[in-house]
What we know:
eight-stranded mixed β-sheet, 11 helices
Amino acid sequence: MAAVLRIDTAEGPLHAVRWSPQAAADGVAPIVLLHDSLGCIALWRDFPERLANATRREVIAYDRLGYGKSAPYPGPQPESFIVDEAQHEFDAVREQLNVERFALLGHSVGGSMAAVTAGRYPLACEALITVAAQAFTEPRTLAGIREAERSFIEPGGLSRLAKYHGDKADWVLRSWVDNWHSEAFREWRLDDALTRVRCPTLAIHGELDEYGSREQPARIAALTPGPSEPYLLTDCGHVPHRECPERLIGAIAAFLETQPGANTGSAFDHPPRS
Length: 274
């Protein structure tokens, strides 16, 4: 069962959905999903519902400001957008939905955001799962973005984004392309955020990922608690929740089943200082 929600922020409302499992487990934290650079709730398709039923946990997803059905972003997206998400919009979602403890699952740049958020609230975050996440800038990432950009700027190409983002589609595309090719991202690394993570972490990656080599999940696994090696999905590219959802859900459910959920600190404890 899915409930459509509105999250109020100073910049405008966010669109969110909460899925309840058919048979909920007792005392387990919900899973909060963070989407990729071109993503939104609609592009998760039926993955959240299936994940909720497989894990017996609530699943919450929201469209970031500027994406999907959420309000437009007030101006260009800043180069600090990965860190900003944990400090602003995620806080609003957590507080207004009264989410005390949570597990985080982020796809692509959403995985980078999830890592920052897990480190910001180490007592509240019980588990971190990154899927096709970026831990640093590498040539494959930039080349993949440029190739995708060419397909979107062809006649009619932007309509594929407009289907999900409406008149925000051009902003979504430019935010993705321009930020990753900016001077600020030339030497960008997620290391500082990863070393702040205190919860068990599973780094999942498709072996055929066109936006990142295996060094991306290897870096995440090396700097966070949990399995020291990433979980590689064979014959899978950058979007496992669409390419191989059964295997992805199986890996996530198995990982979460091993977690005791013993982080009992309040989700509203003060975050660590930078």
